[in-house]
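Weekly puzzle thread! Below is a chain. First person to post its structure in token form gets bragging rights.
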Amino acid sequence: MSAKKSAEVLIGGKVYTLSGYEEEDYLQKVAAYINNKIAEFNSMDELRTYPADMKATLVELNIADDYFKAKALVEKYESDMEQKDKELYDLKHDLISDQVRVEALEEQVRNLENEKKDLLLAKAKLEASLEDALLGSLDVADDASNF
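Winning reply:
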């Protein structure tokens, strides 16, 4: 665990010492965000006459609103990411299933090609045997006609 750190920040014209495990740059960034919200409210003419505690409450409400909107956006992105992960899983599953089917079809093609070769060889042997038989019967017929 990292060491606790402290940083002096200026918020609303007052110096505060903040302590935490974050770096000083981060703490200054948080203070700058709050100062920007305060300046945003101070620039609104209709709010100038409001008491300081009411302005502070409005700033707090505005910061809480920003927080909840950001949190809702993060939840939406996380939900979208979960949906995309599920879609990716489904696509990977489909891809694997398709690869298995392709491999089975390739094996079937190889088997059919081997069977075709065997059939062509058997056909050639039968044709040769038939040719020999026909030539043999012609030779016998020629021999018989010579008598």
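Puzzle host: Confirmed. Bonus trivia for everyone else. Residues 77-147 form one domain.
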